[in-house]
Amino acid sequence: MERSTIVRVHEGLHARPATRFVKLAKGFESDVELVKDGKAVSAKSSVKLMLLAVKENQEVTVRANGADAIEAIEALIGYLENPKAGLDDEDPQPAGDAAPEPAAVSAPAATAGANGLRGVAASEGVAIGPAFAHYPPDIAGQGRMLQDSEISGEIDRFHAAVAAVQARMDRALAQDSLSAGDRGIVAALRDIAADDSLTGEVEGLIKGGNDAISAVITAASTIAADFSAVDDHYLNARADDVHAVGRQICLVLLGQDDVSLENIPQGAILIADDIGAWDLARAPLKRIGGVVCGHGGATSHIAIIARSHGIPAVLGLGDRINALRTAREVAIDGNGGHVIIDPDVATRADFAGRVEAAANERAGLAVFKTVTPKLADGRIIEVAANIGSLEEIEAAQEAGAMGVGLFRTELLFMRHMHLPSEDMQAETYAALAKAFAPYPVIVRTLDIGGDKPIAGIEFPDEENPFLGWRGIRMCLDRPDIFKRQLRALLRAAVHGNIKVMLPMVSDISEVRQTRVLVEECAAELRGEGVPHAAFDLGVMIETPAAVLIAPVLAKEVAFFSIGTNDLTQYIMAADRLNPTVAKLNDVANPAVMSAIELTARAGVAAGIMVGMCGEAAGRPDLIPVFVKMGLTELSMSPASIQRAKKTIAAMAAEG
């Protein structure tokens, strides 16, 4: 069987979306291929998939042959048509998404002086600190030909080394300290380590008489060259990842550990010819003041990790990185790509001032971490976080989130090859409730549709999945799935302040049917003797229909949460993922603001809480308007929380 589609994955199948696509494909028994421009590759090989260089808006064909071919094609096509596939749990600035353009590297910066260098401005920010040179020794092959009797054992030794590298990465993935973005990068590297393209090439070289180390070095260089030859900056950067994985395998074969970054001093500038994403992801990132590398670019995994952790980085210096080998102190400007070696007194003072100004700005906002924003009349405005996984809890707490205003449960479903069990869901929701108690945690029930694939749920072909069988519509049609989630939520409510909201509501009957199912689930749990507790039931206001029946809905539910992202696109009839109509997709448009005001008025009149969980909730220019409308809860990305609290505090001061 085969089926063609247009790829909607943002920026195409680069590392992490490709990794997730492969994971999905491996969940099916059928042989699966992806075809582009007449070239077919296995959909179960991350390397081959990335080298196919599938970009957004290109046409591809999915082929499957086997017992579950229909299910495989449906799931994989759904993934390819989802703009956010593989990116839901990434760092704040995913690869390729407005990444800075490489700066010219042929001449030193005009203001840098004799000791100035210029490279790729890969991660914003300025820093000055002691230089920490990180130059691990090169690895060379043994350079001897194997005897026939040695070949089998050498292949076994190679596979054991791959398994050891994967086990090491699995341990890293199991650590709570690894951020969601870094987790995706390490998972992609893990896949490369055992990909058939690499292992097959190495096995062939060993069978030809090469020792395992020489074979790994040669195979990694060959595959890296393939990535370098692709006409795509992001895929070019994957060559560094292949070399990094090859190095890790060689170190295991040699019985050696790589040079550690554990002893890097606080605030030091890390200097390296090259550093693997694996090494940087597990380094003490909070101690690193900046990163300067000979290799790498704005789309390399080094840059992605640096950006997600707020570390200034200048990459791509080439051989000029050697000028920093003996540096004592380094100043780095990640905004312009400038690096200054052993800065003079004036330059040091300039950078120190800029670092202080940035720190003061952060500190000025940080004081709002523990602030409970109140208006002049004493009303408290809850500023909460939008999150999609337990890994994001720490960032939300560090920002001072007053609970969770939106927990996207679809990510829990999309991460697994099978539908998550009731126990698995209950444990996740309970952990969330405990982490934020006594603050409320609003859990959105499964908001899934043809635009988001989930193994175990077969979706129909739809011309416009955003207007189709999704959200509460799908859940009510699949009570076997919905009741499992509702039971898990009732169980989790014992552990904290759980609230539940329904997505894509457009008819009052959807709320009433859900309430009947909740009562059925509670009765079942009572009969089974399972501890559980009631929760408040609310709705997301994201369809024009919900706005127009808001006065009726308000009598049926405990709260409203306005989802401005979808509400705006539905009010304006403008696809929020279509750049050609982006100017229409503005929440500040009078039509959208009127819809928000109508909703708020209905909620306030009924005496229920009215909140907002769309991205507009974090806009300082709109927060005063929303609050005056009667909204008392605003939920946003953790990065916006402290600024939102400051905005509300300023409103109170103004009276």
* Assembly level: single chain
The shape, in one word, is globular
Percent range of helical residues? 40-55%
Number of domains: 4
The main pleated sheet reads as: 8 strands, mixed
In the CATH hierarchy, the architecture of the largest domain is Alpha-Beta Barrel
Note poorly predicted spans. 88-114
Structural class: alpha/beta
Arithmetic mean of pLDDT: 84
Question: Brief overview, please?
Answer:
With 655 residues, the chain is α/β, with parallel strands linked by helices. The chain is 43% helix and 15% strand.
Walkthrough of the structure:
The protein is an alpha/beta fold and 655 residues long. The protein has 4 domains: 2-80, Histidine-containing Protein, Chain: A; 116-136 and 261-365, 3-Layer(bba) Sandwich (Glucose Oxidase, domain 1), CATH 3.50.30.10; 148-254, Enzyme I, Chain A, domain 2 (Orthogonal Bundle), CATH 1.10.274.10; 367-654, TIM Barrel (Alpha-Beta Barrel). It contains 23 helices and 20 strands. The strands form 3 sheets. The chain has an 8-stranded mixed β-sheet with strand order 5-12-11-7-8-9-10-6. An 8-stranded parallel beta barrel has the order 13-14-15-16-17-18-19-20. Strands 1-4-2-3 form a 4-stranded antiparallel β-sheet, covered by helices on one side. The radius of gyration is 27 Å and the shape is globular. It starts with a strand and ends with a helix. The relative contact order is 0.09.
